[in-house]
Specification:
Elements: E1 2-8, H1 15-19, H2 22-29, E2 31-37, H3 40-46, H4 56-73, H5 90-101, H6 104-116, H7 125-134, H8 139-146, H9 149-165, E3 172-175, E4 178-181, H10 186-201
Parallel strand pairs: 1-2
Antiparallel strand pairs: 1-3, 3-4
Helix pairs in contact: 2-10, 5-6, 5-8, 5-9, 6-7, 7-8
């Protein structure tokens, strides 16, 4: 099956739009999605590229743009949520566990619903616990693994891989060495994955 790497960060605003529709679109395109949480904030600092800090005009545009695009795609919008969130990285590390075990889509949608619709910080342990319980996972076991050295190291390694690929923002979709940045490039990335697979099969 054709494969696309989905690099994102729990705490990315525009990623909400992608997270709520990527699995359906990927299934239609017959493309598998590999969920790759990483520390985009580290890259922002390294690249002197912090998008919305101390930029109220740009931030106001961002929220309105997300609201418009959510309406376009039939995605729920609960008003402007708290921002930033997940300062401890807990949800990102849970996301790595979820990706390893094959339930990243379920958890990520639950976490983002808590953030965007209930206006809760999914980086807070009690919010993460509720999100895990809502999809039938044992919070104690998952959070223990998310806090392990293994997952901390994997989070750092995925951040390093994103750096080496030239990623500078999220969501980013990677097919081979090609990168597509932004929710508005999701369809382009899926099309590229399809064409790449067709060329390989020839």
């Amino acid at each position: 099956m054709k494969r696309m790497e989905f690099f994102f960060n729990y705490g990315s605003t525009y990623s909400y739009l992608t997270i709520m529709r990527i699995e359906k679109l990927a299934a239609q395109a017959e493309v598998s999605v590999h969920w790759r949480p990483f520390n985009v904030r580290t890259l922002f600092v390294e690249q002197n590229n912090i998008p919305f800090r101390d930029k109220p005009v740009k931030a106001a545009y961002m929220w309105r743009d997300i609201e418009r695009r959510a309406a376009k795609f039939g995605i729920e919008w609960g008003g402007i949520p708290p921002y930033p969130v997940d300062k401890s990285g807990l949800s990102n590390r849970i996301g790595i566990v979820a990706s390893d075990e094959g339930w990243a889509g379920e958890y990520t949608r639950a976490a983002y619903r808590a953030w965007f619709l209930e206006h809760k910080d999914f980086g807070e342990p009690e919010v993460a616990l509720a999100a895990l319980q809502s999809i039938g996972k044992d919070p104690k076991l998952v959070i223990a693994r998310a806090d392990s050295d293994e997952i901390h190291q994997k989070f750092a390694a995925q951040t390093g891989e994103a750096r080496s690929l030239g990623i500078f923002g999220v969501p980013t979709f990677v097919i081979g060495k090609e990168i597509f940045w932004g929710d508005d490039r999701l369809e382009d990335a899926l099309e590229w994955a399809q064409k790449s697979a067709e060329q390989t099969e020839v």
